[in-house]
Specification:
heterodimer, A: about 280 residues, B: mainly alpha, about 5% strand
Chain lengths: ~280, ~375
């Protein structure tokens, strides 16, 4: 009986700390939400923590009006680059997992190295090359960059996924006369829905959240959402309801993906944890 | 080893190589080629008038740009950036590993609604640094946000300038940097030596005492015999303005280490836990003496990932403090300013190369370690 009492006291502290942690982690979310819903006149530093007197949804409409072009750019950019990336990953992963040849492991390591570099080291030549092929400043250039520098991680995720498919299955399909491409298209791609989801979420989130290339490689009309938000929030005399509403708008797509497909998100995260 | 079965069919092999070719060529050019190109650019004088020319004229200057960065009078900001990088990395690592492990331990104990807590602790990770940085900037405003919290307890308002503070602690003169580094090395070896003495490992005692005395000697030599690193005095230190950015970064990434650690703790066999309980070990002893040593590989990869993230803090610093705030500076921010605002391409390339080398210092040992493990396993 005494043991049980002690245990329940322990449980109490356990949940106490967990709830405290939850509250602390939600503080920025709370702050952004109440500030974005306040009337601009009501926002002042001294009353930063208090709830809005009256809900003012107009900030969201105004912020979205300002961010609309950036939001659209980011949608086009993230969707296109993610789709291409996933296809490249499926093909590469198929080769490295089920079509090994001598030297293929070496090539795999060769490709993987790209994950571990800080992107500043390739930024200047990337800027120059995009300029000389006429893609600088446009969404096309960004899509190209995201697809190329995404090759290592998508190849890795697909290879790890295909490694779980038994070789015997492949052997018997080959005996039945399945060639390289029919094996890939008829069997492996249909089998790899989970890998497509993991890669899709990972790449989409990365590309949606990316900032460095957005600010250095695009002209204003092709700015993605992160650059749009930083411009909206920049400057000294901002009324904070707009940046806060803008933060929600910029964060919403990835947040929705995270909440709805959290399981796959974490799987991508752990797969990406070999990624530097 | 059915695993490493190689292709026998010749036409399949040709097809495999053909579909791989575009990726290999693109990576060869855009990763390897570009790295070498940046290294080359960093050894030239590309900048100023030729900055944005389509076909710029570049002259070879050797290591001149690097010499400027480390000893030129106007590049003091870069040297402070390096000091900041050290503190950004160390504090981010310690903070996220500690908090993440703590959260993982809390969640590891058959909690009801565990998924809910996990979702809350991990959600910041899904957001971009620009989004979280914008929100934290408001939260850390000097006269509002966090500084108001004490007033709810009837205390005085906080006065700390989270992002705009100009104070620095642990200050040192860059002229003495070498001797300070050797002194720190000597302290580390002294600690190792004491441990070896306590455990009576003779071989290690000899090695560590040799290392200890030689680093002490080098410390003295670099302090009194060698010329100073700079011809002028230059004070650097731990800028307190970085604390606000660190707070946001730790908030954002401790959920990530929690997820890594939780996966690791779940991976430990239940039998270990049972037997430690049979031996009368408490929960604390279990985590401290058994779990932590057993999930060392996870700590290792978390360290690699986080130190990599701390090298990429560009976005967060940009969103919270702006690129021009020298107190919160970071080489990545400096690289952006130097290259794309001042059009000093060669100097920007040199900063990028230094960043690359710093990343390599973390990543190469990790790659070697995991390669060794793969061969053993």
């Amino acid at each position: 009986m005494r043991l049980r009492h002690k245990l329940s006291k322990q449980r109490f502290f356990l949940y106490f700390f967990l709830v405290l942690g939850v509250l602390l982690f939600l503080v920025p979310m709370y702050m952004a939400l109440i500030t974005s819903l306040k009337d601009p006149a009501e926002i002042n530093l001294a009353r930063a923590w208090s709830l809005p007197k009256r809900l003012n949804w107009k900030s969201y409409i105004d912020a979205f009006d300002l961010l609309r072009p950036n939001f659209l750019n980011s949608v086009i950019l993230s969707v296109t680059a993610t789709l291409i990336s996933a296809l490249v990953g499926a093909v590469n992963g198929f080769v490295f997992s089920k079509n090994r040849f001598s030297g293929s492991e070496l090539i795999f390591s060769f490709l993987l190295f790209g994950m571990f570099i800080p992107y500043q080291i390739i930024l200047i030549p990337l800027f120059q090359v995009l300029r000389s092929i006429g893609l600088y400043g446009s969404l096309g250039g960004l899509i190209l960059a995201h697809v190329i520098y995404g090759i290592p991680i998508v190849t890795l995720i697909f290879r790890n996924f295909y490694d779980q498919i038994p070789n015997s299955l492949v052997e018997s399909a080959r005996l039945d006369g399945c060639g390289f491409f029919s094996l890939l298209i008829r069997m492996f791609i249909p089998l790899s829905a989970p890998a497509f989801v993991v890669v899709g979420i990972w790449q989409f989130t990365q590309i949606w959240n990316e900032f460095l290339w957005g600010i250095t490689l695009t002209r204003p009309e092709a700015n993605p959402i992160t650059v749009g938000l930083s411009k909206l929030a920049g400057g000294q005399a901002v009324s904070w309801n707009l940046p806060m509403a803008g933060s929600f708008i910029a964060g919403l797509p990835v947040l929705l993906i995270y909440i709805i497909l959290g399981k796959y998100f974490i799987r991508g995260l752990l797969a990406g944890s070999v990624k530097g | 080893m059915a695993h490493s079965k190689k292709l026998k069919n010749r036409s399949d092999m040709v097809k495999a190589i053909l579909v791989l070719l575009p990726s290999v060529v693109l990576v060869a050019v855009f990763v390897y080629g570009f790295i070498f190109n940046t290294i080359y650019v960093s050894l030239t004088d590309w900048g100023q008038g030729a900055g944005l020319a389509e076909h710029p004229v570049k002259h070879w200057v050797g290591l001149g740009n690097y010499r400027q960065l480390f000893s030129g009078f106007i590049y003091g900001r870069f040297r402070q950036d390096l000091v900041n990088t050290f503190f950004y990395s160390v504090i981010l690592l310690v903070g996220t590993l500690f908090l993440g492990f703590l959260l993982a331990v809390l969640l590891d104990r058959k909690i009801r609604h565990e998924g809910f807590y996990r979702t809350i602790f991990l959600y910041p990770m899904a957001l971009s640094f620009i989004v979280t940085g914008t929100i934290w900037r408001w939260l850390l405003a000097p006269n509002g946000g966090l500084n108001l919290l004490p007033t709810f307890l009837g205390l005085k308002k906080g006065e700390f300038l989270w992002i705009s503070s100009r104070k620095a602690i642990l200050t040192f003169n860059w002229q003495h940097l070498l001797s300070i580094l050797f002194f720190i090395a000597a302290l580390v070896f002294l600690m190792l030596l004491l441990r070896a003495v306590r455990n009576r490992i003779h071989r290690k005692m000899v090695i560590h005492s040799a290392l200890f005395s030689s680093s002490l000697l080098l410390c003295a030599i670099s302090r009194w015999l060698l010329p100073p690193l700079l011809p002028f005095e230059e004070i650097h230190g731990f800028n307190l303005a970085t604390l606000g950015i660190l707070l946001a970064a730790i908030w954002q990434y401790s959920g990530y280490t929690m997820a890594l650690y939780l996966a690791g703790l779940r991976g430990l066999p239940e039998s270990i836990r049972e037997s430690s309980r049979m031996d009368g070990a408490g929960e604390f002893t279990y985590y401290w003496k058994i779990a932590i040593p057993n999930i060392k590989p996870i700590t290792l990869s978390a360290v690699i990932i986080l130190s990599h993230i701390s090298l990429k803090m560009f976005d967060l610093i940009y969103a919270m403090a702006g690129a021009d705030n020298a107190n919160t500076g970071h080489p990545s921010v400096n690289m952006y300013l130097t290259t794309f605002r001042a059009n000093q391409f060669a100097m920007g390339a040199a900063i990028a190369v230094i960043l690359f080398i710093m990343a390599a210092l973390f990543v190469i040992p990790y790659l070697m370690h995991s390669h060794k493990q793969r061969r053993e396993g």
